[in-house]
Write a structure and sequence with these properties.
By secondary structure, the chain is of the alpha/beta class. Helix content is 37%, strand content 24%.
């Protein structure tokens, strides 16, 4: 069994490579060629913390495994990540565990890449201003993925912890020197105003911005909330948007951003236009015109993690990285 740390994982895969993998994965999902059991979510007694168990199997590549994710929002007060994860890959012939790897960076990479693919399909080609809610590792990879698919000139970042927003802006500015301007802003309105693309990557249970402020032609990626009772966007945003998802069944079970307005009668299930696999394969169309507001909701599927983890594991073997037991 091979054990791979976060630093090992970061050496073995890039965002560009992950973007390609996600296109392949969602093509498989669109063909019903992947096994995706529903995730099991165990909420702790305090109702704020949760542990998620997410298995998946991709027959074409013989990738099988499970991701275990812990989400503890109050960890931010302790100076440690709010989200941690591990991925276990199994041998498809014997069932033995082949590899255990840090899943936090895999989660962030694949979530960013999924949004990157959706952004490439759904956002305007001339989009150049990006607004981001949240300043954690998820926000960072969202930015990285969007920079791969659009020529972004300005990124505005807002977080309830202003120091975190400033830190991410400074870090991204250093990495992308001279190619893009990164700015920490003091209010949600400053993020949405003049943004062509908006990303919500928070642990908020309630909407983080006023949907009336969205400009015509904006594209939104909502990736933070994963519970039926939580949402990052308001009814106005949902009502004004054409809606797309990573997986319709998963979104209707887990995405409060959609479940809440559906229950209220603001929208119906029929307002979900397509899933990402259908957009990638061309079975359904995305943006229709430059004035349209598009909304992409991603709740995440383990098949994404397992596909990325398998690629990482194979490259780790080739480069003899990690610890063998």
């Amino acid at each position: 069994m091979r054990l791979l740390s976060r630093s090992d994982v970061e050496k073995l895969i890039t965002m560009k490579e992950t973007l390609g993998l996600m296109k392949d994965v969602f093509s498989e999902v669109a063909k019903n060629a992947a096994i995706l059991p529903e995730r099991t979510v165990i909420e702790l007694s305090n109702k704020t913390d949760a542990v998620l168990f997410m298995p998946a199997y991709i027959p074409r590549t013989s990738a099988i495994g499970i991701k275990i994710v812990s989400i503890f929002p109050n960890n931010v007060l302790k100076g440690i990540p709010t989200t941690t994860a591990q991925i276990l890959l199994n041998n498809p012939d014997t069932g033995e565990v082949l590899c255990i790897m840090d899943g936090g960076i895999v989660t962030a990479l694949r979530t960013g890449a999924v949004s990157g693919v959706a952004t490439d399909i759904l956002s305007r080609r001339d989009a150049e201003n990006l607004g981001v809610f949240g300043a954690g590792v998820q926000a960072k990879t969202q930015i990285e993925a969007i920079l791969e698919v659009r020529k972004i000139n300005c990124v505005k970042i807002y977080d309830i912890n202003s120091a975190s927003a400033q830190k991410l802006a400074s870090e991204m500015d250093e990495i992308n020197a001279c190619t893009c301007r990164f700015q920490a802003v003091e209010s949600p309105d400053a993020v949405v105003t003049n943004s062509d693309i908006v990303v919500t990557a928070t642990t908020s249970k309630t909407p983080v911005f006023d949907g009336n402020l969205l400009r015509p032609g904006t594209h939104i990626n909502s990736i933070g909330s994963f519970k039926p009772i939580s949402r990052e966007v308001d009814d106005t945003t949902i009502r004004r948007s054409r809606i797309f998802v990573d997986s319709t069944p998963h979104a209707l079970k887990e995405a409060g951003d959609l479940i809440i307005p559906i229950r209220k009668g603001t929208i119906s299930e029929r307002d979900i236009q397509a899933n990402l696999g259908e957009l990638i394969t061309g079975e359904k169309t995305g943006r229709k015109d430059v004035e349209e507001i598009t909304f992409f909701k991603s709740v995440g599927m383990a098949v994404e993690d397992i596909a990325v983890a398998q690629r990482i594991y194979r490259k780790a073997e080739e480069n003899n990285l990690g610890i063998l037991f």
